[in-house]
Amino acid sequence: MKTCRTVTWPPPERRVVLTLLDDRPIAPLSPFYALARYIGVADCRGRLHRLIEGPGSSADNMTASILECAPRVLITGFVPDNACTALIAAGIDVRLGHCSEPATELVRRYQSLPKPGIARPWPDHATRLTRGL
Q: Cα–chain-centroid distance for residue 26?
């Protein structure tokens, strides 16, 4: 794991990890969990403290890298079921966010973001047809 920026870590109870598409300050979430180019470590106000290159090879490696960061919350664009199970078992609050806005903006409202498998943020096409939407 190669660190790109080094600043002090936020305390564990305020630590939020983001799976990022790139290293810009306004980077969006990566839509591909295992292929996220960077792991961002932020505080609960959305201030990015550390940027780490993602392992880029498998969901298991990404999960191990996230667990090394010891976050309280993970915000990602997607997470596979086996990775989600491991992260939740480690006590991490996993949330899904939009990949079309700056990830650090999502941190400020993470509690309103859906948890995987619990809520769908947008109805799928079949749901809209059956409900007449």
A: 14
Domains and CATH numbers, the chain: 3-131 (3.30.420.130)
d(CA 129, CA 121): 17
Q: Which phi and psi (to 5°) does residue 117 adopt?
A: 75, -5
DSSP 3-state of 54: coil
**Global confidence as pTM:** 0.81
Measured in whole angstroms, how far is the alpha carbon of residue 118 from the centre of its chain? 16
Contacts with 109 (C-beta within 8 Å, 6 or more apart), sequence order: none
Question: 4-21: per-residue pLDDT in tens?
Answer: 444 577 777 889 999 999
User: What are the strands, taking DSSP E only, across 32-133?
Assistant: 38-42, 48-53, 73-76, 93-96
